[in-house]
């Protein structure tokens, strides 16, 4: 449950005032479909949610949340709003006044150019500092507009590469504008949050096939803007993310002092670097009975060790199931790299995985405006403390 307040602006960015607060069932701050519906059903106002302004708690979910929303039609009597929007160079284009409309115009034009017709209905599903997502209902098919901020725009390049080498392994990229806008085909099935171990085995097989194909194309992927977290680069990125917390988190300095040696031991296990998804949990896999899995959300993809993905995939499983899945994954990689020791690499990477998480979250915080820091800021120290506990 969230209690939502919408501060409304018109097309010029002038603040009009606030709607009365109302409750929505979905507690996650980035999910805005029920927010848009609530404004329409309760107050007769059509809005596009732009961005988070304030939350009454340091992290999601739930609580009292205030958003800035744009409207172009008549509005009821509004309460005064002590909000003075100001520019921020880190703001995503879709979070600006006029941004959602510009993204939708682009998507509609691309659909027409591709002979797909115009959508008969559009639904704003999500908006936050990492993406805006719109559901586009065609006459007979569904499409998706996904708009990423500039620092994640390389996902389009990954999806284009996947579409060429592994069709069906990811959403089909129908169009991209190079700035983060993507028009995507719909995927059948449902997101497999909490999938049992038996369901996760085909996920391992799918990703391994993709990663095997990537082994010879890493220079191409780097050239297309995919992040490089191999070897010394990862070590340096971790040091930068952890440095502000060294005096606050007991044991972090000791863990980092052995990081270089640990990463050298990982390399000695003999596994190749490849394309890593970066957030390979079952909720980022879409499947159904009779529908093979496909992997969503490649915005965190990077070049590095594939052990990070299997560690993410086994989270939440009983120890025996996790060990069996890792053993299956290790067998696949031993065929690619005879004489390698994937199981040892995974054990060595256990405390490195949350260190990598700290790097990712620190990057998010660095690239987003302060009003949206509550989405991520506590994740950085949480990841560092987890790494110390595992190390």
From TrEMBL:
One Pfam match: APH
Domain Aminoglycoside phosphotransferase: 131-337
SUPFAM superfamilies: Protein kinase-like (PK-like)
Name used for this protein in its record: Aminoglycoside phosphotransferase domain-containing protein
Species in which this protein is naturally found: Dactylosporangium sucinum
